[in-house]
Design brief:
Shape: globular
CATH class of one domain: Mainly Beta
CATH architecture of one domain: Sandwich
Mean pLDDT: 74
CATH topology of one domain: Immunoglobulin-like
Low-confidence stretches: 6-17, 23-63
Length: about 160
Amino acid sequence: MQAAPVSPDSRESPLSPRALLPLLPLLSVGCVDFGQHVSQVPLPVDSGAADGGGGDPQGDGGTGEDTGGPASEEVVVIMLANAFDPPEVTIRAGDTVTWRNDDPWFHIVASGTPEDVTHEWLSPTLNNGDQWSLTFEEPGETIYYCWNHASVMRDALVIVEER
């Protein structure tokens, strides 16, 4: 007895869109908000050497004199559940924003919006646990987004005020 011929349309490739439909809920899990949020946390900037050497804890250039202004601060933005937390930060000129990736997938932080990429700055690829910092010297507002999750991680804002 001979087997009936199989037409190309009657077999489904294991990678065809129809074959992947049952996996769709698993693939979209990175696009939901799990409700885990971390609030804006100002931290002092360590201006010491990478090897832990002294630094300038008073922010006075090592002179011991009062410079009249507060020391620079660092604000941490957490990337978790495909969201920036907080989505808006207000800092002073000379302060630093650090983006930390707590997601299991990578992110790339970019200035602008997907529709209006400014090319002012672009982070390296940030894998889980990685962080990247940028010091903002000039007052103004900077919109940013995640380059590889632009449809859900967008329109975040850094507001930089005069020191």
